[in-house]
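User: My collaborator and I are trying to settle a disagreement about how two of our proteins should look. Neither of us wants to argue from intuition anymore, so we agreed to look at predicted structures for both before our next call. Could you fold the first one, then the second, and keep them clearly separated?

Assistant: That sounds like a sensible way to settle it. I'll keep them separate. The first protein:
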Amino acid sequence: MLPAKGNGARGRRRIRRSARQVASDDAKILTYVKAHPAVRSIAIQKEVRLRKPAIASGLLRLREANKIRSKGVRAGTTYSAA
């Protein structure tokens, strides 16, 4: 029997984004959150069409900058404009 091939992150390269790309992604996230109050991150991910790590890091930066606020825990967390 052959060993099963994993489809983990071993063969993938990390995507490095420039500061301009990060700022653009954050602006997209903020615009969507302002237009859709009390939205969950999965909805943001589907509509803005960014990868999950980009959404997670963008939401963290926007929360730290007090541009959005979060309510709830884990998958039930909703985001609204501050």
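The second protein, kept apart from the first:
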Amino acid sequence: MNLNQLSIIGFIGKNAETKYLANGTPVTKFSVAPPRSTSQAA
């Protein structure tokens, strides 16, 4: 069994879009915006 894990921190921009390749492999596309910083550079 193969197990892959990925953690993405941010805000989802749009709904995820899943398509399937010719061989049946699912591919999901989504956009992520990074969290805004609350501090300002001096």
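Some points you might bring to the call about the second protein. The radius of gyration is 16 Å. The chain is about 0% helix and 30% strand.
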